[in-house]
Amino acid sequence: MMSSRVTVLVATFGWLAALLLTAPDAHADVYELRIYKTAEGKLDALNARFRDHTMRLFQKHGIESIGYWVPTDEEASKNTLIYVIKHASRDAAAESWKAFIADPEWKKAAAESGVGRLAEPPESIYMEATDYSPSYENAEGDEDDVFELRIYKAREDKLGKLDARFRDHTIDLFAKHGIKSVAYWHPTDEPDSADTLIYIIEHESADAAKQSWKAFGSDPAWKKAAQESGVGGLAKKPESIYMKATDYSPMK
């Protein structure tokens, strides 16, 4: 079930619940993956708050909105919002969040939104883009596409080889089989910075995703690349969350 996958994701990165940690490099572009789980029946109100207030106030305080999604799983689709934002640096992130939370306009919007308290504390994962993460642009007709958030945990000392496999083989093979690469990141904080790859890809539909994964997995070129990469098996089964972009998401 998708809800259990979200739970696993939350547990895996539970140590990242604090928003204002100091990163190893506080002066480079940093992305932030955030997961919100609302109280029952409050997701529409949360989406309205982001649509009408939060995104504008993010921009006011130097936070760039990248994409906003709701999982396609029936249960998670009722209460879960997943989004990615971008900061000029880790120091800038700390300053932006401080200013945003203290903004009287935000306090008013939050109080009047009807969202109330979230069912769980927001989850936050700070990330940096890999050197092979592509530049993404929306295309005509993308509004109905399905996105997929995936989290890989490599075995000890294998993350570099996993990156090389994506850089040299996987991304091209994804494109060959109709899978559009959106972005690839590493968490910035230990211990996950040493072994974790987080990425988002895009499919034309849920059915297309199944067909693409089937064709990709059986492709002799992929089998050869996987065998020769030196990655071996992952430390745990990949996490996968299928998502639909919200109507207000810049990325569609």
From TrEMBL:
It comes from the Bacteria. InterPro entries: Dimeric_a/b-barrel (IPR011008), NIPSNAP (IPR012577). It holds the Pfam family NIPSNAP. Residues 1-28 form the signal peptide. Keywords: Signal. The lineage of its organism: Bacteria, Pseudomonadati, Planctomycetota, Planctomycetia, Pirellulales. Residues 31-134, 147-250 form the NIPSNAP domain. This is NIPSNAP domain-containing protein.
